[in-house]
Design a protein that fits this description.
By secondary structure, the protein is α+β, with helices and mostly antiparallel strands. It has nine helices and ten strands. It folds into three domains: 97 residues, Acyl-CoA dehydrogenase/oxidase, N-terminal domain (Butyryl-Coa Dehydrogenase, subunit A, domain 1, Orthogonal Bundle), CATH 1.10.540.10; 107 residues, Beta Barrel (Butyryl-CoA Dehydrogenase, subunit A, domain 2); 103 residues, Butyryl-CoA Dehydrogenase, subunit A, domain 3. α7 packs antiparallel against α8 and α8 packs antiparallel against α9. The longest helix is centred in the C-terminal third of the chain and has 37 residues.
């Protein structure tokens, strides 16, 4: 699917800043819209290890689009895992089929890594929460249909945070201008703004005060997913570099005869395999609920994205139409 439906269109999606809805709906037909969502609401019911393998493979076709698909999957999983039966049946089938798309709303202009300090407020009035505040750098923002929003219903700190599902078209929900980026342009990025946005109480995921826990559990899997996307970029980069070495000639022989470049390619392949093993270990730990799962997910995100950045940069192929020049974290151009 990555080779046939994504790679041929990757450059156009990026250059024209296209959100490839139809391609993603084709991916959903293969079960990629709710990979680790339960089958009773339309998901594929696969493991975290399966998910990592799928995202790595898809990223060989387009890292940017796959990274958005991973966020969409995380949102669908959060609703499936923490929602009640009514919420699961309302939202998950359309998300798994990618008839509707989801965005994850945690980051704010004044609270990035310090997520527990978020300021977006939700005041209970009758049978609605009134949302006020804004979220920044939201993947899919403005083009997606469902927003999983972390907001403050209580006092300061993590215990005052709750999770609401906000649907596009809700009065008081608006979006900022589309951010200009040097890559990852197949997924639009905007601010999501709430101005007296009335959200039904029935859209509260879990109980009040559980939002921070929900957010962090979502991000544990999200770290593996993004690391897997970097793996796919690095894997494709290594293959491009290998193929280029076999055809490019200098001083009467192909680059593949250069021992220095042979060693360099071997080092890149070693970094790739070592990174893959760490991601796989973290995925299994998370699936099994092991006590070291959280630290392994964080280690995988830290180590693998850095190593795959290095592999992609070292794979630069100057004369190749699919020039590899930048890191998988910041561009989808292989």
């Amino acid at each position: 699917f990555a080779a046939n439906e994504m790679a041929p269109h990757m450059a156009e999606w990026d250059q024209k800043e296209m959100f490839p809805v139809e391609a993603m709906r084709k991916a959903a037909q293969l079960g990629f819209g709710g990979i680790y969502v339960n089958p009773d609401v339309g998901g594929s019911g696969l493991s975290r290890l399966d998910t990592s393998i799928i995202f790595e493979a898809l990223s060989t076709g387009c890292v940017s689009t796959t990274a958005y698909i991973s966020i969409h999957n995380m949102c669908a999983w959060m609703i499936d895992t923490f929602g009640n039966n009514e919420q699961r049946e309302k939202f998950c089938p359309d998300l798994c089929a990618m008839q509707k798309f989801a965005s994850y709303c945690l980051t704010e202009p004044g609270s990035g890594s310090d997520a527990a300090s978020l300021l977006t407020s939700a005041k209970l009035q009758g049978d609605h929460y009134i949302l006020n505040g804004s979220k920044a750098f939201i993947s899919g923002g403005g083009d997606t249909d469902v927003y999983v929003v972390m907001c403050r219903t209580g006092g300061k700190g993590p215990k005052g945070i709750s999770c609401l599902v906000v649907e596009k078209g809700t009065p008081g929900l608006s979006f900022g201008k589309k951010e200009k980026k040097v890559g990852w342009n197949s997924q639009p990025t905007r601010a999501v703004i709430f101005e007296d946005c009335a959200v039904p109480v029935t859209n509260l995921l879990g109980a009040e005060g559980e939002g921070f826990i929900i957010a962090m559990k979502g991000l544990n899997g999200g770290r593996i997913n993004i690391a897997s996307c970097s793996l796919g970029a690095a894997h494709a980069s290594v293959l491009l570099a290998r193929d280029h070495m076999c055809v490019r000639k200098q001083f009467g022989e192909t680059l593949s005869n250069s021992q220095f470049l042979q060693f360099k390619l071997a080092e890149m392949a070693t970094k790739l395999v070592a990174s893959r093993l760490l991601v796989r270990q973290a995925a299994v730990a998370l699936q099994e609920g092991r006590p070291d799962a959280v630290s392994l997910c964080s280690m995988a995100k830290l180590f693998v994205t850095d190593e795959c950045f290095s592999v992609s940069c070292e794979s630069e192929v100057p004369d190749c139409p699919c020039k590899v020049v930048t890191a998988p974290l910041y561009t989808n151009t292989l």
